Amino acid sequence: MSIRMSRYVAITSGVGAGTTVNQRALIGRLFTTNPLVPPQTVLEFTDLASVGAYFGTTAEEYLRASLYFGWVSKSIKKAKKISFYRWMQTAATPQIFGSTSVAPSLAQLTALTAATLTISLDGVANNATAINLSGAANLAAVATIIQTAIRASGGANWSAATCTFNATLNEFVIGSGSGTALSVAAGTLASYIGMDAPNKPILSNGGAAESLTTCMTNSANLSTNFGSFLFLPALSVAQQTELAIWNNAQNIMYQQMVRCMTTEAAAYNAALANYSGVCLTLYSAALTTEYPEMVPMIQTAATDYNAINGTSNYMFQQFPLTPLVTTDTDANTYDALSVNYMGQTQTAGQYLSFYQRGKMLGPSTAPLDMHTYANEMWFKDAMQSSFMTLMLSMPKVSVNKAGRSLLIAQAMSVIAQALNNGTISPNKPLTQTQQSYITTVTGDETAYRQVGGIGYWLDVQFQQFTTPSNTTEWQAVYTCIYAKDDVVRAVSGTHILI
Fold first, then answer.
1. Out of 10-19, 32-41, 172-181, which region has the weakest mean confidence (pLDDT)?
2. Between β-strands 43-45 and 82-86, what pairing exists: parallel, antiparallel or unpaired?
């Protein structure tokens, strides 16, 4: 035995600065009314096969994901993840979707002559017994027999219950017809139809109809891990305007994908022109399985901000989509309305189709180039994550020179990445108006030289503010002025022959 060494020298071990705050992945989020997506749930998939296994390979969700995951950028990058969220366009009652990992067997089911099935609706169990499936000629007939048994055993609350067999997904679906929440089925029949707990069926609760604003708010509250969004159901101009109002209030956080036909272009431009973040794209109702409005979403999701010069121009991007604009007259019309489109040109008989012109709607104070808007989405989020990581990792950030140095160093780590990936563009010519504006904002007569030369100007100051509880606190206020990356959309030359 001996006296503990810690009486004299006590050492506590731990990892310092171990807390990191995740950055958003600027993936696409598709809003669907498909009941396979449980309400108040964000579903994320990392490959097309998983989307197909969940929704089926004929579903619109799968067809859109096929374009989304199938595109490879010029930098040999592709989208790595897609998400789905359910819009409760109308009120709905709960459903259970049998696991697709179970292949229902008619022979096994018809061998059951006294099966049992228990399903709970809002905590109250419905115990169906003596279910005889021996006379079923097919799986649809099995579903009808189960439906009859559920209605008979459940009383008034189950009088509108349904049971169907989805041949496309090879699964049974039970709906209560009332209530809010169903729980996993039990009994001797449950495992045969993929509705027992081990097989993990999909439980899709019911709920009241919700507005588009409520839907977007709830979705973002659950997860901000997306950079662009679109709705699968056809929406009116008024509905897209409601979404644009919500999105505009988020201040360059998401891109809103909006499709419009030729006859709608002027109306959409008039309604949405003053809302930032709107990507308006021409489509044809005749091309039902082509989704040109997804092009900016795919481009954003495929951008690798960790790569050297990882950003890119949203124009001149080629997709396997039918060109809808093939004349200068039409191109001039849609360009004036800030409506993007798949356009076609030709040289020496070779036809070239690509997305044009990569422009967005919004006021003059908002980024109107898609790539600039996307870059700023990334830059803001990277700064936010960086500062939050600092405050969670450090014991304190003092209101003094040392604290200011910490904050500047943290911001510089993000600025270095922005210079590396092309978000910030050094050695950029500035107009006299831009130079004067920078001088006015900064109060520094040489600031514009820094912005034009190294690409940015950064300052951090401390300010006091009053909280809602009427106490005084300090905050660090930083200003970053940077030269955005402008891109070439046309080349004009002069040939002088001597």
1. 10-19
2. antiparallel
